[in-house]
Structure formats: C-alpha cells, structure tokens
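Continued from yesterday's entry.
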Amino acid sequence: MEALLQNPEAFREMGFFWTFVLVIIAACVYFAPIIKQWLKTHIEGQKRTDQIIENCTAAINNNSEALRNNSEALRDNLADRDKMVAIIREHDRASDLRFQEQNASLSRIEHEIHR
C-alpha cells in the first residue's frame, strides 16, 4: 500500500481500472432490461421459427405421402389403360374381321344378283 501511495501513476491507473469496472457495472444495470427483452424476444422468435419449421416439415411429409399415393394411382391407371387399349384393339380387330366378312358376303350377293 505504501508503494501505491508513493507512486501516484499507479494510483491513477488503479482509479481508471475501478472507474472502468463501475462503468461496466452501470452499463449492465442500465442495459439489463433491454438485453433481457431482446433475449426473451429472440427465444420466442426461435420457438416460433421452430414451430414453423415443424409445420413445414409435417406439410412436406404429407405432400410426399400424397405424391406417393398419386404415383401409385397413376401406375394403376396406366395398367388399366393398357388393358383397356388391348380390349379396344381386340374389339376393333374383331369388328374389322366382321366388316370384311360382311363386305365379302355383300360382294358375293351383288355378284349373284348381277349375273
């Protein structure tokens, strides 16, 4: 302590240190409500963001499931369409054969009539 009293420069530096500490404490006391409010808002914002992300994730999962269901339905529809096309082609072929037979019969009848 005696050395401190003998050296006014050290005493001044010590005074600056304690002044600095008091300024820091005063700033903390002054800005504490603002910092507290910012932290509270930030935490609530983070919770809100987490909820939004959770909702979006649920929506994405629902959409993915819907896409899978739609893809499956489309595959089923394509299979049904292919079956229907095959049935229609067979029907067209059978109709074409009947039409050719009827044309041939009509041609024979006409030929017989014109004799």
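--- second protein ---
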Amino acid sequence: MNKILFGISVLGLIFSSIFVVVSIWNTEWILLEKGYYTFGTLTVAVSTYLAIQFLMGYSHADTLGKLNASIGVIFSIIALLFMMISVRNTEWILLEKGYYWMGMVFVTLTSAMLSATIKSIMNNAEPLK
C-alpha cells in the first residue's frame, strides 16, 4: 500500500508543480514576476515537505529536533500565507486569483502527502542486515 501511495504522491506533486509553473510561465508577466511566483511556489512546496518530515518525528525528537519542527511549521505557514497574500494583492480578476490560489493549495497538499508517505515508509522499513 505504501508503494502505491508513494507513487500517487510523487505523481501528484509533479503534476501540481508543473501545472502551476507552466501556468505562470505562459502569462504575459515580466520576467521578475514569473521568477517571483515560481520561486514562491517551490518555497511553499519544500517548506511544507520539511515541516511534515520534522513533525512526524516530533514525539521522539530532542529539544533541537522540536525546535526544528517548530521553525519548519512556522516557515511553511509564513511561506504559504505570503504567497496567498501576494496573489490577493494583485489587480487580477477574481477568477485568475482563484486559479493561482488553487494551484498553490494543490502544490502544498501534494507536498505534504509525499512527505508523510516517505516518512511512513522510512519508519516501517526493515533495518539493513
């Protein structure tokens, strides 16, 4: 089951990332805007992935591990809110804003799903002999 879930998670993250990045780069924005929203999307995906990894090991972590988990979660929330507010403050029509919000949420959720699946597989793996 974990291998199937892992495959679905990887495909979901790849599809969602490509979906958002291609939609960003097919706009008539200036290069700076394209880079900003692409980097923001990738930052949200990576920070969400790391936050879930840290959180799943939270119960067995020492003080430094718990601090890392807290920082990871805070950074993930800040990155997501920052990108959502950035989209909100544009002068686009609401339909376009919703499109990019949906893409951002899609990337965030698939990143979290992949992270949780990988951590679950790592926790259930048999040690090498």
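The mean pLDDT is 87. The CA atoms of residues 23 and 100 lie 9 Å apart. Will compare against the first tomorrow.
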